[in-house]
Design brief:
- By secondary structure, the chain is an all-alpha fold.
- It has a domain of 54 residues.
- The chain has two helices and no strands.
- The longest helix is centred in the middle third of the chain and has 31 residues.
- The chain is elongated, with a radius of gyration of 25 Å.
- 0% of the residues are buried.
- The mean pLDDT is 78.
């Protein structure tokens, strides 16, 4: 899918580039199809990769962490200097 979108559709789109017809509706529609196939191909690849990881005993997960600094590293909320 990814290669079909990237290479196959690009062959159709290249003709519009050669004749400088890139502001036309057909060119824009072919471009949408090309980009859509590429994105869909990446989604299928990620899904297949996660499915493969699950079947081999791995537990794929996504962990979101805060980027705020930890207070204990900066010395807490202590007062002035001595």
């Amino acid at each position: 899918m990814f290669l079909g979108g990237a290479v196959g559709i690009e062959l159709h789109v290249e003709w519009y580039n050669e004749i400088n017809y890139t502001d036309s509706l057909p060119y824009m529609l072919w471009t949408i199809v090309e980009e859509g196939l590429e994105m869909f191909g990446v989604i299928v690849f990620i899904y297949a990769l996660v499915s493969y990881m699950k079947t081999n005993g791995d537990n794929p997960s996504i962990v979101l962490r805060s980027s705020a600094p930890d207070e204990s590293i900066q010395g807490g909320t202590g007062g002035g200097s001595t």
